[in-house]
Amino acid sequence: MALIEIQNLHHTYHAGTPEAVVALDGISLTIERGEFVAIVGGNGSGKSTLAKHLNALLLPTEGEVRVDGLDTREPASTWEVRQRVGMVFQNPDNQLVATVVEEDVAFGPENLGLPSREIVERVEESLRVVGMLDYRRHQPHLLSGGQKQRVAIAGILAMRPQCLVLDEATTMLDPLGQREVMETIHTLNREGVTVIHITHAMEEAAQCPRMIVLSSGRVAMDGLPVDVFSRADDLHRLRLVLPPIPALASQLRRDGLPVPERILDADDLASAIASLATERVGHGRVGNGAD
Known about the structure:
This protein is of the alpha/beta class. It has eleven helices and ten strands.
């Protein structure tokens, strides 16, 4: 059984009123355990609305969302759904509730009524995983943005979720903070946590094995990043910008250089150019020998 199953999901804000806005319009998706999925889309595409459906912060107007077989529409399942799917939001300052890092991470387990010894173990383990154990007695407001977001992730991990959903969690961070958070979630995924990274940063999406593109509340694309980026014209119509390396490869193709379409990073591009250069030098040598 898949971890998350979404069938014909619709969501309308202010349904039944003149102000009604359709945010999700018939989405169907399956996310397997252990996947690392990026969800991208322009403003108003439905990314954040979809994120809130994954742990029952919002409920479907129509259709269904199941987490580990639990129907999010069932009130009796809400708490279990939220234990399985943890959410990290855009602003880390809005997620920290205590004046000391370890107390903040302990907040969730304490609300579960766990024994003190287990809480201490969970706090230490979670802070160690995100690389923040040395800061356990620090005050959160003195940390950098990236460090705060890692503490927020540790607080979710202390609840032992099966899935971590990041809703634009790197948007407000500087490049160092963004890199810290991305490294953390890659580590978590390697350790078996399902990660759903909702982002507007195509460079971050390129790091994920699967990429889903939303447009007007619908799934426009779903596949490997290299396959999505090969559809540059479609992405342009959706007002999405290719990451720098795929964009450069696309421009080189337009300029007449036969660079392969499945270019994702600098190493791919360098190898492709080196191969083309070797081919051309080889052809030149053959021609000179014939003369």
